[in-house]
Write a structure and sequence with these properties.
It is a single chain. The protein is of the alpha+beta class and 140 residues long. It has one domain: Alpha-Beta Plaits (2-Layer Sandwich), CATH 3.30.70. The protein contains 4 helices and 5 strands. The protein has helices at residues 3-15, 50-54, 86-90, 120-135; strands spanning 38-40, 60-66, 71-77, 96-98, 114-117. The chain has a 3-stranded antiparallel sheet with strand order 2-3-5. Strands 1-4 form a two-stranded antiparallel ribbon. The longest helix is centred in the C-terminal third of the chain and has 16 residues, at 120-135. The N and C termini lie far apart (74 Å).
């Protein structure tokens, strides 16, 4: 690099504003094909567990409550997910999708990274069972 062109760049930097984006305050729209948080539609799910079998990072668990009544709870570990969308591609019933709007997933603790999808009463039953398993008591 010649000294003259370098000096020209240095002098130009004194007169121009920086090219820094003010990200948290001014947000650009996310691309349509951005792979964000996993979204699950329980009405379409048949409980085949193909999504959890094909997940390379073991980020999906499908907990079956009643297969005939199609009652499932999906436990999604967002901290393990590599956002490869392998589960979305292999789902035969198209009940999984990667959100292009919900992609800001940073947190200070690990608790928000375990996401439970399903009906509220089913999720509460699964959480009660997990809590009882941790303490060694029978679920109420």
């Amino acid at each position: 690099m010649k000294f003259g062109s370098m000096l020209k760049d240095v002098l130009r930097s004194f007169t121009q504003a920086p090219v820094t984006e003010k990200y948290p305050f001014v947000k650009k729209p996310a691309p349509d094909r951005l792979r964000g948080k996993l979204v699950w539609n329980p009405e379409k799910c048949s409980g085949c567990c193909l999504c959890s079998k094909d997940c390379p990072s073991d980020a999906i668990e499908l907990i079956t409550i009643d297969k005939k009544a199609k009652r499932f709870v999906m436990r999604y570990h967002a901290d393990r997910c590599t956002y490869c969308a392998q589960c979305v591609q292999n789902c035969r019933f198209e009940c999984l999708d990667m959100s292009s709007t919900d992609w800001e997933l940073a947190a200070l603790t690990k608790a928000p990274f375990d996401v439970y999808y399903g009906k509220d009463e089913d999720v509460d039953a699964v959480l009660a069972k997990l809590a009882a398993d941790k303490t060694g008591e029978a679920p109420a």
